[in-house]
Amino acid sequence: MCHRIVTRIFRAGTRRTKVTSLPLDFVHDSVKDLTTAATIVEGVAALLRRATLRLAESGGPERQQTLAYDLAHASAALETARSLIDYGAKGETEATITCAFVADMVHDLSSRLIGREQLWTVQVSELASYEPFVATYRAPELLVSLAATTGPRHLDDDYEMVQDTFRSFGKKVIGKHAEHVHRENADVPEEIITGLADIGAFGLSIPSEFGGFSEGGEGEYMASCVATEELSRASLGIGGSLITRPEILTRALVKGGTEAQKQYWLPKLATAEVMAAVAVTEPDYGSDVASLKTTATAAKRDGVDGYVINGVKTWCTFAARANVLMLLARTDPDRSKSHRGLSLFIVPKPLGEAHGFVFQQDGGGRMEGRPIDTIGYRGMHSYEIAIEDWFVPADHLIGENEGLGKGFYFQMEGFENGRLQTAARAVGLMQAAYEAAFDYANNRNVFGKNIIDYELTQVKLGRMAVVIQASRQFSYAVAKMMGKGEGAMEASMVKAYVCKAAEWVTREAMQIHGGYGYAEEYPVSRLYVDARVLSIFEGADETLCLKVIARRLVESVQG
């Protein structure tokens, strides 16, 4: 599949990350200690299982929210560490990164436990046997040795080609617009949309029989993950997030659309002839999708059977530029049916002005979009949209009659992979922040020497490198799971861990820049405010932890 993508796109050069040699004492220990790291991972897993049993016995996530939230994040860090073990076996640097992350994971768990041992039924003292390992791999000199590299990625050749192509496009096309769009709150330049369409970016998840490049399996998810990371490295707002817009609608159509709907819409999505926005969230409900109020009532207009939509949607990203909204509405007025009364629609609309739009439809329909100004993640713009008596034909209900009441499940098909893609966006953002900080530290002189020469700077960069590579490898692991039809739980975990990690990495990158980090003169300030949105969209962190991760953890010990 990846091979087919790159036959249509240019082979781009790339700057390879330089891998520095590690001090021999650490090299020897890291390779030898990889077995110890694996043992620690399984030991921590047993402790977290015990805490999960405690959560189940004490009323579950709703009754013990603090325990559930911390346990979800501890479990996400554990699975990140578990995904690194195979990576660590591939070389000296890889082994050191793996051991350093496992030590970091244990340290994080201990900080969650102190003062709450009784709540968890796990004692900090139970981690005591891991202290020598943690001391070795949290040692400043160990982290200093990792400051100059985030480590090799170990991508297959096809994915290396995808990486090179999208990295080059990010640098040459997206990069020159990123700062202007952020500072001026401008629109996504059409050059980016047409350019991404030309290299096949919008067809990565669309089956090949419908004009895309997906042939199913691991390749589809890995290619999207790699492409998203590289585009996000150039810009979150006008790069990495742009190619996920059609993907959510694509997956809903593949899951539940009629053959005619697939034949009509998917080729248009693949070429960007049709750009989509998602209209699911509502002002009063946020992540509580099952309670939404927007209605779609069966009606006939000008002799055409269809539905009339009424309601308000919010946080509709890219809604002005989009040609269609993927809109979730209640088709069954019986609210006791919760999500079982929801259906999913493709709602055509004209192109609108970025800073607000009003459309009138023949027959009385009205749609008004009000932009929501944000501190970051600019370019695509988010909107609150009020919809009154907006008519859509019956064949715009995904699945038509067979799709009635199944909209929640269709949209979740796209949202689960959306969590993986959000993690990939976070990895790209972190990589950009790390590189900016590393470059600045090597060129900024303070008190007679460059910032890079100070131990504290190197320790920060070293931990950034560890966290970034761990996040990347976990993302790859989840992509491979999802290619096998698995990994729904892990997709939630990777989003939970990686998006929080991005906040820390971009914060430290800004700090390394000192006062200039707070100025818009340097891109790191954009990276910092962009990172903040990652734990909010595609499932707010708290909702994801309590309603998805912790709940499934409890189910796993009760089954």
Keywords for this structure?
4 domains, 559 residues, Butyryl-CoA Dehydrogenase, subunit A, domain 3, 18 helices, alpha+beta, globular, Butyryl-CoA Dehydrogenase, subunit A, domain 2, 5-stranded antiparallel sheet, 3-stranded mixed sheet, Butyryl-Coa Dehydrogenase, subunit A, domain 1, 54% helix
Characterization of the model:
- This protein has 559 residues and is α+β, with helices and mostly antiparallel strands.
- It folds into 4 domains: 24-138, Butyryl-CoA Dehydrogenase, subunit A, domain 3, CATH 1.20.140; 156-271, Orthogonal Bundle (Butyryl-Coa Dehydrogenase, subunit A, domain 1), CATH 1.10.540.10; 276-409, Butyryl-CoA Dehydrogenase, subunit A, domain 2 (Beta Barrel), CATH 2.40.110.10; 426-558, Up-down Bundle (Butyryl-CoA Dehydrogenase, subunit A, domain 3), CATH 1.20.140.
- Helices cover 54% and strands 11% of the residues.
- The chain is built from 18 helices and 10 strands.
- The strands form 3 sheets. The chain has a 5-stranded antiparallel sheet with strand order 2-3-8-7-6, with no helix packed on it. A 3-stranded mixed sheet has the order 1-4-5.
- Strand 9 (445-446) and strand 10 form a beta hairpin.
- Helix 2 (24-57) runs parallel beside helix 4 and helix 14 packs antiparallel against helix 17.
- The chain is globular.
- The two termini are 38 Å apart.
- Residues 1-28 have low confidence and may be disordered.
